[in-house]
Amino acid sequence: MGISHLPGKLAPATLAEFLRTYQSFDQQVLVGPEIGVDAAVLDLKGQVLVATSDPITFATDEVGYYAVHINANDIAVMGGTPRWFLVTLLLPAGNLDRLTVENIFKEVSEVCHSLRISVVGGHTEVTNGIDRPIICGHMLGEVPHGKWLSSKGARVGDVLILTKRLCIEGTSLIARERGKEALSRGIPSQVIERARGFLHEPGISIIPDARAVLRSGQVTSMHDPTEGGLSGGIYELARAAGVGILVDAEAVRTYPETDLLCRVFGLDFLGLIASGSLLLTVPRKSAEVVLDALSDEGIEAAVIGQVIPKQDGVRLKRGNQVVEMPVYEQDEIGRLFAGRRDGNA
To answer: Which CATH number covers residue 168?
Structure first.
């Protein structure tokens, strides 16, 4: 049975069927996703609420998977536990099949189940003006009073740590959205397949990274470098904390698949969307404790720089030369995708 292609809400019976895939994991959800109900009702029990919102616009497959993880990451870097998810799903009129919608609901449900997150509401609509599903996620989480973090917490003298290697999401996106073109440019098919799999392994979730760091008790700030890449994340962290940052380019690690794809497509990895890595600052004396905590969880990490006075700026050290950190007006993945999309794998 198909789905109506007419603009407007999904038919109530169809939406009710899809909503049954979601589960609630706690009694704090007093009112969850139901047809005719306008908002969720949550009992916070004295906890601090953490809220974020982020759309998925670059990816065309597994958008439900992206949406949950990207939003959950934003809660985790605040020291919080992601608990409740709301989804706004826009579907293209006249270009829609049931399996597409069913898969998105399934992805959201499976990821939320794995992270013990309850889907508590949202909105689903068939609309004109788009040619593919667009999903906007809204994540709510909680953290005990006095335990929340902010990227404002970085202090002069702290060291800067990066978990995993850089550009996990960017590498996967290029392989997934430009796979055929990458193959035509001479990149081996096995490299493209490995890069496609980066979405799941090493993976774009930084919740394990954040939890390991928080258990160490030594972190002063955490930040999630997404669109804008490492460069954008560094500038955002520096601005939030009112500090400068010096990054050692030689300490920043990337994957061979990332290096090859960036070279072939003429991209700079410093400006490539970098979900999957966690930026954090810790007092210099605590660096080894934090690195050990991450290593105990099997998470690769390295010190890549230090926090310096604001007047010294945001700088990049290449060998013996120190220059201003490059600024990218547009994420490198956006620049790549600005052209035709018919190279999709």
So the answer is: 3.90.650.10
Asked, for residue 294, whether it belongs to a domain, the answer is yes
Residue whose pair of structure tokens reads 């960036």 in the numeric block:
262
Judge if 16 and 109 occupy the same domain.
yes
Q: Is position 111 within any domain?
A: yes
Residue 217 inside a domain? The answer is yes
What the block records as the tokens of 198 is 């980066």
- Alpha carbon distance 162, 71 (integer Å): 19
In this structure, what DSSP letter does residue 43 have?
-
In a domain, 343, yes or no: no
Look at residues 143, 160, 189 and tell me which one is the last residue of a structural domain: 143
Beta pairing class for 314-318 and 244-248: parallel
CB 34 within 8 A of CB 15: no
Judgement on whether residues 190 and 247 belong to the same structural domain of the protein: yes
pLDDT string in tens for the chain (345-residue length): 566 555 556 676 787 888 888 777 778 777 777 766 555 667 777 788 889 988 998 888 999 999 999 999 999 999 999 999 999 999 998 867 889 999 999 999 999 999 999 999 999 999 998 888 999 999 999 988 778 888 889 999 999 999 999 999 999 999 999 999 999 999 999 999 999 999 999 999 999 999 999 998 889 999 999 989 999 999 999 999 999 999 999 999 999 999 999 999 999 999 999 999 999 999 999 999 999 999 999 999 999 999 999 999 999 999 899 999 999 888 999 899 885 443 333
SS3 at position 326: coil
* Structure tokens belonging to residue 246: 């010096």
- Domain residue limits at 207: 151-337
Give the 3-state DSSP-derived string for 83-102, with helices as H, strands as E and coil as C. Answer: EEEEEEEEEECCCCCHHHHH
How many domains are there within the chain? 2
Determine the Cα–Cα distance for residues 106 and 262; give it in Å rounded to an integer: 32
14 burial (CB, 10 Å; 0-12 / 13-18 / 19+) is middle
CATH assignment of the domain containing 127: 3.30.1330.10
Q: Are residues 169 and 300 in the same domain?
A: yes
Q: What is the C-alpha radius of gyration for the chain, rounded to an integer number of angstroms?
A: 21
